[in-house]
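Flagellar biosynthetic protein FliR
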Amino acid sequence: MLTFTSQQLYAWVAMFIWPTTRILGLLSIAPPFGSASVPMLVKILLGIAIGVVLAPDVPIPPAIDPMSMTGLLILLQQLLIGLSMGFAMRVVFAAVEAAGELTSSTMGLSFAAFFDPQTQGRTAVISQVFSLLATMVFLSLNGHLLLLQAMAESFHTLPITGVPITTEGFHELALWGAKVFSMGLQLSLPLLIALLITNFALGILTRAAPQLNLFGIGFSITMLAGFILIAFALPYMLTPLQRFLADGIEMVRLLGSVPPVNALPKP
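Predicted structure tokens:
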């Protein structure tokens, strides 16, 4: 006859629920899994499948009732860790979209926007093109597998425990979020400078020949120059994209290695 104690039952339930919660938190935000085009049912089933595979290898603390206050706090902590890891990867794609927004507005295509179900708002066409480019580069480099690997390693570097984690990881995450603007500007700066020179040339042309209708020819020239510049710049965007995506993976690893709070305060 098969018998088991309540402590064993708590351990079995916790061995699956807590790791799966961290995984689902990551999948709900991190691209490409966190895209609104991916059905919620697919995310949940994928998270459960990964949780089943990783559960036997995840270090679990001594048996704690998952429905107790301590168990619920651990559940909330795992969800917060997973969301933080997903957000760290999402920052890179937000920077790419910011580069597309800057380029689009400089080209005069800021009005060419459509509803993006992922961000639940209006997104410029150039921004969406850059985002798709970043997604293809991410998948071609097996970035999704590296992301899942970093998350799996975090169960050993940042094990599941009832001890609260420090605020050091959240401080690093806040600093990482500020890189949206710097990375976006780095990607779009060559295009912005070239388009600025184009606008200067149009201004000089208008001063030299006032009879020209700037609004009639300026928009067409700027837009055409922007598309030509994007076509030339796309091959050279691969290297910075690879670097930014690698930095995103490293940030996920860093968040997964933040130690818990020390029992005694440092002197």
